[in-house]
Amino acid sequence: MAKRISIDKMLFAVTLLLVVAGLVMVFSASAVIAKEKFGSPYTFFLRQLAWAVAGFAIMMATMKLDYRKYKNPVIVFSSVAVTCLLLVAVFFLDPSHNTHRWVRLGPFSLQPSELAKPTLILFLAYFLESRTRAMDDLKGTIIPAAVPVLLFAALIVKQPDLGTALACLATAGAIFFVAGLQLRYFAYAALASTPVLYFLLFHVAFRAKRMTAFLDPYADPQGSGFHIIQSLIAVSTGGLAGVGLMEGKQKLFYLPEPHTDFIFAVTAEEWGLIGSLFVVGLFAIFCFRGVRAAVMTTDPFGRFLATGITSMIVIQALFNVSVVLGMLPTKGIPLPLISYGGSSLFISLASIGVLLNITQHTD
Questions:
Q1: Could you tell me which residues are beta bridge partners of residue 3?
Q2: Cα–Cα distance between 162 and 201 in angstroms, integer?
């Protein structure tokens, strides 16, 4: 039987270090832009700090609440319904930067796609817990489990936000794998999704430009290739030890969104290879401790939750770093716990609180 132990202190410390590093880099990356736009260099930093404080408050709360209390159909299906409603509602609200990603209520804003990730994790953990011996049941297990995942992914793609949709699918895939789904079903899914992905990447104009830029950014250095070229310049400029905190040049209106999507490029320029490896190392430790939590619990519900939360954070980090290094086409995925963004930070910390609670209930 599972016994109650103390939380995983290393996982807690890694989370704290990532958030602190994020606050430092948000200020460094955004100070000039904030001064130009709002008249104060502290605008983005103070907003992120407020979200970090709120995020740690909710993390402490979820860390103390027994994760098994979420195993309630009212909580699970209400979360799915509310998230689905929000994902639909964004299409009836005013767009921002030609996208429908935000629900805004005065000064408060929420990105429903960020909420979709933990909601899917909760749903799959609840639904698959009692079906681990029937994972090959197409009608009874696979299709009912996949429908909400595909619905959420389709709505997120429509926003449009293909990167977050792929992150949701990858996270769901990790849970299906740990639940025991046979590999042939992953092959079937890959075959079925290939033509859809091909269409979305090469027959949607703005994504086709990104794919062209990914394959040869210097074919259009002032256009579609500009973002990745500036990112690679920032990374290469950093060298071994970096140019120094606040001393980076690429954030000065060269890098697009230097405090969000390309904050790792600013980190690489100012902290160098050593600092970059430090950040990547923190995510690697986070991955190890999260996987350890999943392995050490004998409760399937807790194992699936731990797998999903760990995958959610690590997959996003992998996508973001890969984009910055030119290993993947440009997509708008923030670096978890580090990039500027209240919805992402708050929901990530709330989810990590659940993961930390799971570490208290292991054998």
A1: 362
A2: 9
Residue whose pair of structure tokens reads 């590999």 in the numeric block: 183
This model's pTM is above 0.90? yes
Nearest CA-CA partner of 310 in 284, 344, 333 = 284
Flag whether pLDDT at 1 surpasses 50. Answer: no
Q: What is the pLDDT of residue 277?
A: 96
Q: Residue 51 — φ and ψ, nearest 5°?
A: -65, -35
* Secondary structure element (H or E) that encloses residue 104, with its range: strand 103-105
State the angle between helix axes of 112-129 and 162-179 in degrees (0 to 180), rounded to the nearest 10.
Answer: 10
Which run of H or E residues covers position 362? strand 361-362
Q: Compute φ and ψ for 99, nearest 5 degrees.
A: -130, 155
Give the number of other Cβ atoms within 10 Å of residue 29's Cβ: 31
Rounded Cα distance between 141 and 315, Å, is 25
CA atoms within 13 A on the CB side of 292: 13
**Distance, CA of 351 to CA of 110 (rounded, Å):** 16
Give the model confidence (pLDDT) of 138-149 as tens digits: 899 999 999 999
The model's pLDDT over 236-280, given as tens digits with 9 standing for 90+, comes to 999 999 999 988 888 887 887 889 889 999 999 999 999 999 999
Alpha-carbon distance of 290 to 310, in angstroms, equals 5
* Nearest C-alpha neighbor of 34 from the set 238, 242, 258, 234: 258
